[in-house]
Known about the structure:
By secondary structure, this protein is α+β, with helices and mostly antiparallel strands. The protein is built from 8 helices and 26 strands.
Amino acid sequence: MAPFIRLVLASLVLVSTSAYYVQQNEEGFISGVISDKGLDFAKDILIEQGIVSVVQLQLPEIEKSVQVPFIGNAKVVLSEITIKDIQVNSSSVVSGESGIFLLVSGATADLTMNWRLHLVTVLSRIETLGAYSVEGMQVGLTVDLRNEEGTLKLILLDYGCYVTDLSIKLEGGASWLYQVLVDAFQGNIASAVEQGISDKISEGIGKLDTLLQSLPKQISVDNFAQLNVSFVGNPILSNTSVAVAINGLFTERNVGLVPQGYRKELQVSSACGGLPKMIKVSIHENVFKSASLVYFNAGKMQMIIDELPNQAILNTAEWRFIVPQLYKQYPNDDMQLNISASSPPVILVDKQDVRASVLVDITIDVLEAGEVIPVACISVDISGSCSVDIIRNKINGRLKLQEFSAYLKWSKIGKLHISLIQSLISTALKTVVVPYLNLELKKGLALPTIDGFAFQNANILYYPPWITVCTDVSYSEDYYLTQHSAYVS
C-alpha cells in the first residue's frame, strides 16, 4: 500500500486554498488547499494504484461440506483464491465537515481459484480450476484529519466493501457436477472478497497515519537555517476542497521550535485569477522576512569583492584624482570592497513582484604588504524588485536593481565626495552584487512536494502580502512502478 500512502499524502501536502475564506487563529505562513479538480485527480490515481496493490491479493481458503444430488456428501475446498483484476465503472470523492469520503461503485473483480472435490460415497477426489467475477461491488471509506501537536493524524471513520452479485464459471470435465455447488459458495466467496479488500483499506490507512505522524516538524535548509513545517490548526474540509496551513517560518539551525509571540487572523482565498487549477500554494511575505533575519543573524549577508570587469578600479592609482589622500598614503596598492548588510533586508510582496530594500556598509580596504587596511566606509541604501517564477518544483527569482543612495559613514583618509565615487558603487552593484544574488535566487526555494509528482502549467499570482502558486499536477507512472516493485520485493 506504499503507493496509496504516497498519493494521499501528496494530496494533503500539495495543497492550496479552498473556495471559501479560511480563518485560523494561529500562525500559518504557508497555506493551501487541493481543489475539487485536484481531489478528482488524486482520486483517479489513488484508485488506479489501489487496484495494483489489491491485484494478486490471495484470499483465505474456503472449505465446506455439501449434499450433492445423486452422489451424496461431498467436501469442497476452494484454495488459492486470487484477485486477478478489478474494473471500476464509476467513482467519486466528497469532502465536508464530517470528513473525506471516497466511493467506488459498480466495480467488477475477476478472480481465479483451485477447486478440490472429495466425494465421500465413492471415495474419490477430483481437482479442477474455477474462475468467477464479482459484480456490482462497492468500496467506500471516510477519513478525517486532525492536528496533533503540529503533525497530522488520519482517522478512519468508516470503511467497507459490499458485493451484490457473483458470476462463476468452472473449467474441467466435471464442471457439470460443480455447478450445483455454486449457490452454496456464493456467500462465502462474497464475504472473503469483502473482508480481504476491507482489510487492505484498514492496513493502508494505518500505514498512512504512521507516515503522517513521522513527518518532520522542521526541515534543514543548510548549515544555518531550518524551515518550520509543523501544521497549524486542524485542516479545513469544505464541500469542494481540503485546506491546511503550516508555520512556514525560517529559524536558526538546531534551535527548538518557539511559538510566535502574537496571533493573527489568517484569510486564505481559493481565487486563482479565474484559472481552474488543481492546487494553490500561498506563501506569506513573512516567510522571506524570517529567512533574511536568520541569515543576517548568522553573518551570511556579506561578501568581499576583489575582482571587477574594470579591475583598474580596485587600485589606488585609479583614485588619485578622486581621493588624492588615498593615493598619497597608499600609492599603487590593490583594494577590495567588503560589503555587509547592516540590518535585515525589508521584503514586501507587491501587486506585480516582490520589493526588497537593504542597508549595506561598503568598507574600502587597501591591501598593503599582505595586510588588509580599512580606510573608509560608505553606507548604501539599496532597493530592488524581484520577479518570481516556477521552474520544476521550485520558486525562482530574478533581482533587478531599482535605485540606491549613499553617504559617508566614516573615513581615515579625509572627506570623500560620494558623488565622485557613484560609478564605483554602481559598477560593483551591477556587475558583482546583483549577479551573485541572482545566482543564489536561481537555486530556488523548493515547494513542498512528494517524489513522483511535479507541478505543471504553474502560474504566479500576487495577493499582497501573499505570493500564490496556482498549478496543476502531473504524476510519474514510471516512478510509481519502480517504487511499487521495490515495495513488493
